[in-house]
Design a protein that fits this description.
2 domains; 8 helices; binds calcium ion
Length: 234
């Protein structure tokens, strides 16, 4: 079982280091961001189990970061603990109804911090990832095997179960060509009849749904399909 992970968004280096030290000592995998923009990007990319979010950040405020996290389908289920400088601020945080799950006031004792972290993780249920269920992001296309969802630039793309499996298979090895026979065997669990256009029909449908990112599924003529390993053209 992989470690649980925590993203810490904090601009004060001293506090950031204390947080990381204590979390890592407890066995958490940690990601850090020094401002809100970087934090939002990391939250989308790493899908952490918990976010510790400082209220007073340069640029985007902690409140704004929290609001955006809770609006984004990719990040809205990640519990957030707000880290505030003064106890008066906690009223503001909670009053705003931004969806933070808890808060902690600086300065805090490590034990207090870890107790809050454990409590929030327990409350929000197990988001522990099992092997093979890690989200995969390839070329701006994010594949979430747990929810069976694909996101393209923040847009939720609804695929059928078969389409999802095809995307997952191709994206598991970007740049590698899979023949129609291989796709059929791995995805449908059946050998393909030479005249069968089944896989082509599925791929056509996937491309239509991917819309502006349809070109991530490339046709290799006479061979099969592959997931592009090149960056999208902008
Ligand atoms: Ca700060």
């Amino acid at each position: 079982m992989s470690k649980q992970s925590v993203l810490v968004i904090e601009d004060e280096i001293d506090i950031l280091e204390v947080l990381l030290y204590n979390l890592e000592a407890e066995g958490f995998r940690c990601y850090k961001a020094l401002d809100g923009e970087a934090g939002l990007a990391l939250a989308r990319e790493k899908n952490p189990d918990l976010i510790l979010l400082d209220l007073m950040l340069p640029g985007l405020s902690g409140n704004e970061v929290c609001r955006r996290l809770k609006q984004d389908a990719l990040t809205r289920d990640i519990p957030v603990i707000m880290v505030t400088a003064k106890s008066e601020e906690t009223d503001t945080v909670l009053g705003l109804g931004l969806g933070a799950d808890d808060y902690i006031t600086k300065p805090f004792r490590p034990r207090e911090l870890m107790a809050r972290v454990s409590a929030v993780l327990r409350r929000t249920g197990s988001r522990v990832k099992t092997a093979g269920s890690e989200r995969l992001e390839v070329n701006g296309v994010l594949i979430d095997p747990v929810r069976h969802e694909v996101f393209v630039e923040g847009r939720d793309v609804v695929l059928t179960a078969t389409e999802f499996k095809i995307v997952q298979l191709l994206a598991s090895q970007p740049g590698r060509v899979f023949t129609r026979e291989q796709i059929s065997a791995k995805v449908l669990g059946q050998p393909m009849h030479p005249t069968d256009r089944n896989i082509d029909v599925h791929v056509k449908s996937i491309r239509k749904k991917l819309d502006e990112r349809r070109d991530v599924i490339e046709t290799v003529r006479g061979v099969g399909y592959r997931f592009s390993d090149r960056s999208p053209r902008k």
